[in-house]
Amino acid sequence: MIKIIVDCYGGDKSPQANIDGALQALKDERMKDLFLVLSGNEKEISNYLALKRTSKLNNEIIDRKISILNAEQVITPDEKPIDVIRFKKNSSLIEAVNLLKKEDDICGMVSTGSTGALVAASVLLIGRLKNVLRPAFCPILPTMNGSIVGVCDSGANVDINPEYIQQYAIMGSLFMKSVYNISSPRIALLNVGTEKGKGDKLHKDAYDLLESTPNINFLGNMESRDLLSGKYDLVVCDGFSGNVLIKTTEGTAIELLKKLKEGIYSKFLYKFGGFLMKGLFRDFKELMNYQNYGGSVLLGISKIVVKGHGSSNSKSVHECIYQAYSMERNSFSINLENELSQILKTNESNIEATKEESL
Question: At residue 100, what are phi and psi to the nearest 5 degrees?
């Protein structure tokens, strides 16, 4: 059995979307051995689950595959992360994190609540995996050839060094293998040009380090315009650049769809053409809908933590749970610790060899 906690009071559409997403996940044939702990106001959650007892399947799921962790406080987006940890210990998020840390049989959690509070609580209360320098976010975007691409880091760390980027590549590559069955993820370093010598010292040094890292499929630099091209499975970068890249890409897609809709309704002939292409537009809108791709996994924490969009609907919460489930099913944390240990030994050997050469 794989146990995961769902923070039911994080996000704009909570708790309904979070609970509905949990029920959808428990009906998913890919996760037959899933058990969920719902964190939040026990009375409200129980009352909502009672409304969902509309079939024999729902009754069985609610009775056998769900438990409730009572937590009556709710974290608001404007609260400082440290204050949340100190003064809102009975919030759905902090109670979930504490239970995740305490119980060995619970492997991970999903939250659509405050990013700052989730990161702070995960790092300070749960802690990092052995040899992890900095945890990093890795969200997923669709590509134009029908595949996906991960971006690591997308906001957890702004000030970094080449060793951080090397770990992002290792963690992100293993994540893409574990959840999306990509056997050898194609990795690119976000840069201002594709040539090897491009960028500042950080990016030049990171390029050399990635090029010498065993067991990853590093293809070289990538310009931001190629993010959705389908040429890469994972892009590594600092958290500032990654966050800008993600939000710019999502914003561009949204505005283009708005402009396209506006243009179609501007003339009768365009309306007629739009009617004929209605299916194509619907498919494209569905392709670009971030709700279909789950959340942003916080890689490097000793337990699995998935951060969903604040506006997540039930489908998105369902996919977030699947991300956490797949990581545990494929022993992500154990495999990552082993890989980082090997890389650390390799880096130390390279440093010693360089010292001997200089002598």
Answer: -60, -40
* Residues 133/336, Cβ–Cβ less than 8 Å: no
What is the model's pTM? Answer: 0.89
Q: How many alpha carbons lie under 13 Å from residue 126 in its C-beta half-sphere?
A: 33
Beta-strand pair 304-307/296-299:
antiparallel
Instruction: Render pLDDT for 321-350 as a digit per residue (tens, 0 to 9).
Output: 999 999 999 999 999 998 888 887 776 666
6 pairs with which residues across the strands?
Answer: 38, 110
SS3 label, residue 307: strand
Query: Residue 140's closest CA among 285, 293, 328?
Result: 293
Q: Which residues of 273-300 are buried (b: 16+ CB within 10 A; e: fewer)?
A: ebeeeeeeeeebeeebebbebbbbbbbb
Question: Domain range for residue 85?
Answer: 1-132+300-330
Are 19 and 110 in contact by the 8 Å Cβ rule? The answer is no
Place of tokens 């320098």: 133
290, 151: one domain: yes
Is 259 in the same domain as 139?
Answer: yes
Q: Which domain-ending residue is among 247, 272, 295?
A: 295
